Backbone:
C-alpha cells in the first residue's frame, strides 16, 4: 500500500505548542499583509474612489472569472524598507475568460503608482514567472512613472521591464495593457510594447512627456488630451487598439481579448477528479515544532497535501534523512523531495541525484519541501566524499529541466538550501511557511563561529582577548542573523513568491502546478560531470 498513515496526535503538548506558535506567526504576518492591502491608506483610497476610479484589487476582481481563485504573489515586497509594503504593485495568477494569466496592477493610491526599487524587483519576478510558464500577462496600468528620488536604483535596471515584454511577445506569450490613468515617460512604453492596448475615454493618458516638460523642452503649448489622451491614441497615433468608455468597459474588453487569444495549455491534470487527502488541512498547523532543532516527519505534511494521501516512496530504507517519492497533487503528477532529519549525508545526496534523473526521464515536476541545516560536516564525512556527493546533488538540481517548486517549511541553511533548489536555482515558484528560517547557517552556529574566529585571531597575534566584548558581539550577531532569517524579511526582499498559511499549501501548489502545465514539461538526460 502507498497510502500514508499518520501518527500525529493533535492532543499532544508538542502538537499544541506547534499550532500555537504557527497561529501567532500567522497573526503577525496578517498585520503586514493588511498594510499591503491598504495601499496608500484610507486618505488616498478615498481620494481615488472620489475620482470615480476603482482600486487595483477591485480592478483585478472584476477582471477575473467569477469566484475563481487568485494566487497573489510577492505580497510583502518591500517589507522592512522605507517603502509601502507591496511595492505599489498587486500581482498574481488567476483565470481570465478561462485562461490562466499573470496579472500585474499598479496601485495608484501609493504615490500615484510610481515605480520604486521594490516595484521593479517584484515586476521583474512576475515576468520571470510569465516567461517560464508561458502565462499571458495583463498589465493594469496607472503610474506616474519612476519615483524620481530613487531613480538611480531603478532607471538602468528598469529597462528590463520593456525588454521582457518584447521577449514575451517574441515567444508567443500574449501581453495586454489596460490603461486606467497615466502611463508617462518611460512608462509609456509599457502599453507601447504590449500586444494589445485598451485605453479609456478622458481617463487614459500616455505620453513620453507631459505638457509642462514639452513646454520646457520645445516651447510648444499642449494639453494632456491632444498630447496623450485615449481619443487621440485611438484615432490619430494608433497606439490604442480598443477605446473604452469607462473602467468596467475596459475590463470587459480585456476579458474579450483574452477569450480570443486561442492560448492553450500544454497539458492538463493526469487525473480529472482527484481525491482529496485523507487527513484535514488544519492539521498542518500542528506539525512543525516551534524549536526547529526538533525534527518532524515530512510525511505528515505530504499526507495532507497530496491526492488521497497516496505517496509511493522511493528508496525508503536508504538515505532516510531525505524522503523521496511519487504522488499526484490536484491531479498533476509530482516527485517530492523532503528533508526528514535536517542534515544531508552522502547517501541522501546520491539518492536525490538518482531521483531527480528519474523525474527528468518521466517529465515529472519536482516539489522540494525544505527543512535542512545543510550537508554533514566532520572528518569522517569529508573523507567519505560529502563534497563530491553534495556537488552531485546540486549538479542534478542545476541542470534538471522539469519544473521545480520549493516550499520552505523549517530550516533552509547553507548549501543544503541550494541542493534543495533554493531561489538561486530558478524554481518556478518558491513559497514559505511562517515557521521557515533561511540563512548561511543557524544563528547560534554563525555567532559561535564568529566568536571562535575572533578569539583565535587574538591568540595568533598574541593580543589580549576581550571576552566580555566578544560575548556581547556574539549575542549581537546571533540576534541579527535570527532577525534576517525570518520569512517576512526574506519575502520582503522578494526571495520567495509569498508566505502561505500551511492550510492553503495544497491549493497554492495546485494553482502553481496548473500554471506550470501551460508550458510543456520536458526533462533532460544532459547533466554536468558527476564526480563519482
Residues:
Amino acid at each position: 500500500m502507498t497510502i500514508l498513515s499518520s501518527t500525529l496526535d493533535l492532543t499532544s503538548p508538542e502538537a499544541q505548542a506547534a499550532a500555537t506558535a504557527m497561529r501567532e506567526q500567522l497573526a503577525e504576518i496578517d498585520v503586514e499583509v493588511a498594510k499591503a492591502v491598504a495601499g496608500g491608506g484610507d486618505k488616498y483610497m478615498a481620494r481615488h474612489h472620489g475620482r470615480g476610479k476603482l482600486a487595483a484589487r477591485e480592478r483585478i476582481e472584476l477582471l477575473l472569472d467569477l469566484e475563481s481563485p487568485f494566487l497573489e504573489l510577492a505580497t510583502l515586497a518591500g517589507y522592512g524598507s522605507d517603502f509601502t509594503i507591496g511595492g505599489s504593485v498587486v500581482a498574481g495568477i488567476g483565470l481570465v475568460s478561462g485562461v490562466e494569466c499573470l496579472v500585474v496592477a499598479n496601485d495608484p493610491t501609493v504615490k500615484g503608482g510610481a515605480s520604486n526599487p521594490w516595484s521593479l524587483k517584484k515586476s521583474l519576478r512576475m515576468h520571470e514567472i510569465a516567461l517560464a510558464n508561458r502565462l499571458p500577462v495583463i498589465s493594469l496600468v496607472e503610474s506616474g512613472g519612476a519615483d524620481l528620488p530613487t531613480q538611480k536604483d531603478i532607471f538602468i535596471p528598469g529597462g528590463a521591464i520593456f525588454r521582457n515584454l518584447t521577449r514575451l511577445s517574441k515567444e508567443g506569450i500574449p501581453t495586454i495593457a489596460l490603461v486606467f490613468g497615466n502611463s508617462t515617460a518611460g512608462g509609456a512604453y509599457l502599453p507601447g510594447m504590449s500586444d494589445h492596448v485598451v485605453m479609456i475615454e478622458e481617463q487614459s493618458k500616455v505620453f513620453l512627456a507631459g505638457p509642462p516638460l514639452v513646454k520646457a523642452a520645445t516651447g510648444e503649448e499642449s494639453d494632456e488630451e491632444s498630447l496623450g489622451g485615449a481619443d487621440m491614441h485611438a484615432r490619430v497615433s494608433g497606439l490604442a487598439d480598443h477605446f473604452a468608455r469607462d473602467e468596467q468597459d475596459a475590463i470587459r474588453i480585456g476579458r474579450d481579448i483574452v477569450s480570443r487569444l486561442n492560448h492553450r495549455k500544454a497539458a492538463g491534470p493526469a487525473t480529472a477528479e482527484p481525491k482529496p487527502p485523507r487527513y484535514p488541512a488544519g492539521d498542518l498547523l500542528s506539525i512543525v515544532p516551534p524549536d526547529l532543532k526538533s525534527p518532524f516527519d515530512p510525511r505528515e505534511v505530504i499526507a495532507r497535501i497530496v491526492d488521497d494521501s497516496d505517496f509511493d516512496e522511493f528508496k525508503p530504507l536508504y538515505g532516510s534523512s531525505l524522503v523521496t517519492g511519487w504522488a499526484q497533487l490536484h491531479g498533476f503528477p509530482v516527485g517530492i523531495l523532503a528533508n526528514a532529519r535536517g542534515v544531508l549525508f552522502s547517501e541522501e545526496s546520491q539518492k536525490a541525484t538518482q531521483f531527480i534523473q528519474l523525474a527528468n526521464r518521466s517529465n515529472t515536476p519536482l516539489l522540494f519541501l525544505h527543512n535542512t541545516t545543510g550537508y554533514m560536516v566532520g572528518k569522517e564525512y569529508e573523507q567519505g566524499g560529502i563534497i563530491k556527493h553534495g556537488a552531485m546533488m546540486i549538479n542534478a538540481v542545476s541542470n534538471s529541466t522539469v519544473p521545480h517548486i520549493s516550499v520552505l517549511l523549517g530550516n533552509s541553511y547553507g548549501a543544503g538550501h541550494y541542493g534543495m533548489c533554493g531561489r538561486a536555482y530558478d524554481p518556478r515558484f518558491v513559497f514559505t511557511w511562517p515557521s521557515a528560517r533561511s540563512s548561511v547557517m543557524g544563528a547560534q552556529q554563525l555567532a559561535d563561529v564568529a566568536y571562535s574566529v575572533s578569539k583565535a585571531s587574538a591568540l595568533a597575534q598574541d593580543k589580549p582577548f576581550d571576552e566580555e566584548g566578544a560575548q556581547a558581539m556574539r549575542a549581537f550577531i546571533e540576534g541579527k542573523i535570527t532577525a534576517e532569517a525570518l520569512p517576512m524579511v526574506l519575502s520582503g526582499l522578494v526571495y520567495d513568491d509569498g508566505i502561505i498559511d500551511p492550510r492553503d499549501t495544497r491549493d497554492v501548489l495546485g494553482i502553481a502546478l496548473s500554471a506550470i502545465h501551460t508550458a510543456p514539461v520536458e526533462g533532460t538526460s544532459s547533466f554536468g560531470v558527476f564526480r563519482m
Remarks:
- The chain has a mean pLDDT of 93.
- The radius of gyration is 25 Å.
- The longest strand covers residues 175-184.
